[in-house]
Amino acid sequence: MLATLLLCATAFAQGIVIEVPGSADVPIAAPKPMVPSPFAEADEVWSTMWSDFDQSGFFKLQDPAGYLEKGKGVEPGTFEFQPWTTIKSSVLVKTRSYPPGHSACDASGAHMCTDAYVYYVPTGETLMKQRFKGAPGDARHIGHHIANAVLEAATGKAGVFGARLAAVNSQGGNKEIKLVDLDGKGVAPVTRNGAINLSPAWSPDGGSIAWTSYKKANPDLYVKDLGTGRTRVISNVRGVNTSPAFSPDGSKIAFARSDNGDSDIYEADARTGKILRQVTKGGGIDISPVYLPDGSGMLFASERGGGSQVYLQPNRGEAKRVSVVGDFNIDPVVNPDGTRVAWVGRSQGGFDIFVADLDGRNPIRITQDTGDNEDPTWSPDGQYLVFSSTRAGGSNLWVSTADGRHQRQITRGGGWTQPTFR
Predict the structure, then answer these.
(1) What is the pTM for the complete model shown?
(2) Mean pLDDT, residues 241-265
(3) Residue ranges of domains in the chain, CATH in brackets
């Protein structure tokens, strides 16, 4: 895990100012790592870092085949900047990796090391130097950690590479909840019950996941403690118990439940499942609640006005309609600072992801003419959205900058839906 890596860092500069990913393509060069002797983990560190740069939306990757410099050092003064100015690089990332057991890293053999240097080529300024140290099995995580550090050094914005998603996967024939890293790797099961499992939701501390399961025929709501593996029932009334969302402090869960007829939004104690209040009453199907980050209310989708639309329900007062375009809008999610909302809207040719201010103003469509795009979830920094899309055949997870200008595929093989960020 990233938290287990040992770091020694020196940061020198405030970075290159880029407002949002996708707004600029900063040319970045990152030669293969220098190594005292080749070893596979060094290549994995580099390839992971390189993939993260491509996914970030901040950089234009310069093909290593076009690099003019060969075999020079990584530290200041051991190479010239002229070959990099010639190919118009802006950011230069140089690395050196030491295999386990190397005296310059860890003679015991328990750790490998990668030293990373980041330079701003136009001025020759050193933006960062940092050592990343971890077990040989941590090579991919080291690569993510380097990419995060480079992004922060070069732009002033911390990266989210190595972040974990929970999602629904049906590749085994059933719909199971699985964990997957933002690069599509590190897949691990949460459920293995052979039933239909839907709508995963992380607790704020990342220690638990709530979801809906048909393992006892009825769509019931469960929470699993990922540390102990223990699972508890939150709601199992006959009918629908679905689309859970934790409150910002993790003490409550909002979800849709149907006792008699259409579903309404309820709020329950996240530990015991005791119903604390009924948030909505009547007026059509209400589903997919999500809390505002400050706890002042929640968003949800409702058919109370005819076709499904997104509404904002403050803790006090009446619900207000947020979605103002289209006749069918569902699955709202709010960004971490509570200023914007994304949802799924039906458009000509399929479903697309829309983003607007929290009150529904300034809506933009970030997908178009690319199959069905559904299930949006915001990254912890609010700069990216992950969603499911059928554009490449089957349903896979994709990541996009919040403005839609830079999009990359995460998973392969189909069968991936309903992602949610840790």
Answers:
(1) 0.93
(2) 95
(3) 2-155 (3.40.50.10070), 164-421 (2.120.10.30)
